[in-house]
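User: Study the shape:
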Amino acid sequence: MKLYNLKNIGTALLFGAILLGPTSCSDFLDEQDPSNLTPESFYTIPDHAEAAVAATYAGLRFYGDGAGIFSANWQLLEAVTGTATTETGQNSDLNNLYSLTYDGNTAHINNWWNGLYRIIANANLALEKIPTIPFLSPATPAQQTKLIGEARFLRAWAYFNAVRLWGDVPLVTKPQTATSEDFFATRAPQEEVYKLIVEDLVAAEAAGLPVFETSGRATQMSVKALLSKVYLTMAGFPLSKGASHYKLAADKAFEVITYSKANPTTVNLFPTYKEIHTEALKNRLEHLFQIQYNVAVAAFPLNDYFPNFKAVTYAGPGGTGSTIPTTSFYNSYEKGDLRTVDQEGWFYTTYYTNGDGAKFNLGAPYVFKHFNQTALGAPGITATRNNNLNVNLIRYAEVLLIYAEAQNEVGGPNAEAYAAYKRIRDRAKLTTPAIGTFTQATFREAVWRERWYEFAYEGITWFDMVRLRKVFNEKTKGFDNFVGHLNLNVGSGVPLQEKHLLFPLGIQEMKNNPGLTPQNPGYGQ
């Protein structure tokens, strides 16, 4: 029937062409279909430039996309740290991450590659096309510069993640087609990748972005914060830039701290931990940059932190428990640390039936850090059932500890570095030893330890392990060398190996692009 209809439609079109009279056949065939958009036909007005950058921001949400049953992409950065384990065993890829037996077929690894390079591709297209769009009114050239700055910020973020995950990666800076000369791009040295990251962020910093705002878009504060983090990473492994880049990291972080001191109601720490995961406070104060979520487009994606089949939300018994804290890590926090207090800090050990009913014991600590009481329910709060919480990428707390660490490496723990470190501990209701009791070495480990406790379950810990080549030992509360450290989250412990400093490249991606060879060491071909 469909073939018959198409045949008759074709006949009707032929008669229509005859009835139209002496219209040129070539004119008819050359006419553009206005609904068939291409990069050449689309980028013509400023609104198209806005759309291009919006699409690049939207690409950040790959972070929360599914990676098989009871799993999402973000778990790549948590399962391998040793601070998390699982109550479910259905997802073999996730289990392989926990046991450090992953390979180039692991879904999370492939999804991160595809997600990051999709952001890069969108940013590259925006960077090529936005300068060609006429911005005619007196105000719009500034808009053009700002949009280019945002695209460069997003490209830098994507490459920063890629180079830390895989080391040498393809450095693609132009839109690609199947006929592009470098369509099968080879891997560039990490030094070159970091060079582009810094160039992008320095350009973004000078692009006229607002100092800070609550729209969720890049600002001067988020750019400076990310740049300080990049410098800190470059100072450590594998580039080992050392003192020069610790100084750059400290100086850039201090610019954010200086702004916060002058504008404490704009950029600062939240007084309480609950405010960090309060939906009404998204993109404010401590949140320097977040991935934006709204159920109209995509709902908050960290629900795999829910306990398995325990009625902690309006939906009743549910959740997957596929990422939960290890008891050993939870117990390693200092006694009295507010971050371990039930429903006050990062964890909860009790909750309320269906969100707002009778209180019950969960039987173990679970992650409360991302629990949205507005959406899920709490005593006196009727759940909205729309989880619109954002995902944190950079908090002001991280800027404080970047400064403390970097400044200490430059010249030991001065008063500003000590004050930054102490602010994190003050919020946790902990007593901090006097500055005079610290040496450079003891302050170094104190700041590292605080990073483990403050940024647990935020996709930060793994990258600290790699850049420091050190891992927090939950039993001794000191730091082991990366190679040989036993992760306590699986059985009797799984030792980290040299190969784990990088993830493997995806097998299918290597088949598609022979230029990616060789595979990262230790993972075969």
Observations:
- The mean pLDDT is 91.
- The chain has three domains: 43-209+501-513, 211-292+390-473, 303-389.
- The chain has 18 helices and twelve strands.
- The longest strand covers residues 359-367.
